């Protein structure tokens, strides 16, 4: 009796791949993205998404003989196509975070604004803070908002506080404006109370000797 080799390749083994007959057996070479089935009859899809780390920072979608990565927002496909890498928005768009500093974060970025600015509603840039909308700003004066700052213009008789946030009364009495009288400071102004025998002059700052007029009247 003579035993002859069975050509498994002619019996339909290794479907989807390249079958090579060998004495008493065969070998199956599957295309990239496929594996030989356990019985050796078929080339079946290899699920790349089952491998740890595939499409990191994204979603792995298995396809027949291949796969694709769908990256999360703020990420792009790496050169290998196996994972997703962070997009540096600060580098990609130098005009981002105007009036502030851009700091890249994984999948996003944040704006660190200059003094006098706050982050916009969409987080893309820094907008002016209207300090004049804050209650109590520039009391006893007028608040003028400026880009990134503000300025207080005080009413007459008032001056800026050291922090430049409000206006306080000027004590005119410190300069002793009332001659022959007593100075009384008031909010934004002052008044003179004359000593007995004196009356307030037209300038409102000096007291005139009224007794002099009385002597003249008697002399006449």
From TrEMBL:
Keyword Repeat: yes
Disulphide linkage map: 9-19, 173-183
GO cellular component labels: extracellular region
Keyword Transferase part of the UniProt annotation: no
Location in the cell: Secreted
InterPro entries: cEGF, EGF, EGF-like_Ca-bd_dom, EGF-type_Asp/Asn_hydroxyl_site, EGF_Ca-bd_CS, Growth_fac_rcpt_cys_sf, NOTCH1_EGF-like, vWF_C/EGF_Fibrillin
Pfam families: cEGF (PF12662), EGF_CA (PF07645)
Residue span(s) of domain EGF-like: 5-44, 45-85, 86-127, 128-168, 169-208
GO molecular function: calcium ion binding
Swiss-Prot/TrEMBL keywords: Disulfide bond, EGF-like domain, Glycoprotein, Repeat, Secreted, Signal
Superkingdom classification of source: Eukaryota
Name of the protein in question: EGF-like domain-containing protein
